[in-house]
Amino acid sequence: MCTVCGCGTATVEGEKKATEQSQSHDRHHRHDHDHHSHDHDHGHSHDHHHYDHAHHHPHDHDHTHGEGGEVIDFGAGIAGVHVPGLSQERIVRIERDILSKNDAYARDNRALFAAKGALALNIVSSPGSGKTALLVRAINDLKDRLAVAVIEGDQQTSNDAERIRATGAPAIQINTGKGCHLDAHMVGHALEELDLRAGGVLFIENVGNLVCPAAFDLGEAHKVVLLSVTEGEDKPLKYPDMFAAADLMLLNKADLLPHLTFDVGACLANALKVNPHLQTLVVSATSGEGLAAFYAWIEARAAHAKTHAGAARAG
Ligand SMILES: Nc1nc2c(ncn2[C@@H]2O[C@H](COP(=O)(O)OP(=O)(O)OP(=O)(O)O)[C@@H](O)[C@H]2O)c(=O)[nH]1
Ligand SMILES: [Zn+2]
Ligand SMILES: [Zn+2]
Ligand SMILES: [Zn+2]
């Protein structure tokens, strides 16, 4: 997972910029959504993990060289990651601290979704596999039947939020700056700007990245991982955490299959090797192939969330 990304630079559209926020956070933080009592330390940002050190240093840290020297594994230590200057134990402590704070925010978000009876789906994939295209299509197909809202995460632009708003659905942009994933705290702030409906769906489009978003619970009911057929059938094996964390995999861009040598069966088998409980659908955001099954999957879960909210109120 990502220990040292610049998550302190996030801005939620409509809120103060992160720099202003970090300077005045204690005083001006609007937590009227009754979520999280927390100490804020998100004025920080650090460099991302780069392996740009020349390889003539003394080995005071661990990574393993393969038998023949052909593999240098920086993830072989207990932290599963290598950061120059930090011991494995220290990285594990930092990760635990970041994730336990994240999990507290995620619990608050989840409680809010449950109270409102809304279904939240965290859409994760590598850049360009078709998250926004799929959401635009799904919103157009579903908007007469379901209330849909969207939180859009990316590093810099509002392009995707604008594509979503063109459908008429409300969308809040979160820019993560150098950060390579959304976290539950950012999502909690975006939720302050959204009106969730019972039986409705909140799509959260995560930052395009098959690695870091796997580690962060946003309070969603399910992670939905998109993989496109142009990316290669070995991606679930190369990036197993993401496929292990997801409950549904959509294999997108199926309309391109006639032009490729992509082996759908091998890809699905690789995904199931990593996560035997993963549900899979082969779809195309362009042609609409396979999407009826995705919509049925969503509608069943949205109806369940609505029923659950009624029960929570009664109880
Ligand atoms: N042929 C084909 N192209 C697709 C399909 N889905 C998306 N695309 C194209 O793939 C490109 C990237 O799609 P986006 O929806 O922007 O991908 P994304 O995952 O939102 O990208 P990031 O937000 O940058 O991570 C666009 O040119 C889309 O038109 C599909 O099912 N078939
Ligand atoms: Zn990272
Ligand atoms: Zn997108
Ligand atoms: Zn906050």
Automatic annotation (TrEMBL):
Biased composition (Basic residues): 45-58
Keyword hit for Metal-binding: yes
Chain intervals for the UniProt region annotation (Disordered): 12-72
Gene, per the UniProt record: hypB
Matches recorded under Gene3D superfamilies: P-loop containing nucleotide triphosphate hydrolases
Protein name: Hydrogenase maturation factor HypB
Composition bias, Basic and acidic residues: 13-25, 34-44, 59-68
Keyword Transport applies: no
GO biological process: protein maturation
Keyword terms of this UniProt record: GTP-binding, Hydrolase, Metal-binding, Nickel, Nucleotide-binding, Zinc
Domain of life: Bacteria
Pfam families referenced in this protein's UniProt entry, alphabetically: cobW
A single GO molecular function term of this UniProt record: GTPase activity
The CobW/HypB/UreG nucleotide-binding domain, residue ranges: 121-280
Organism: Methylocystis parvus
NCBIfam families per UniProt: hypB
Family assignment from sequence similarity: Belongs to the SIMIBI class G3E GTPase family. HypB/HupM subfamily.
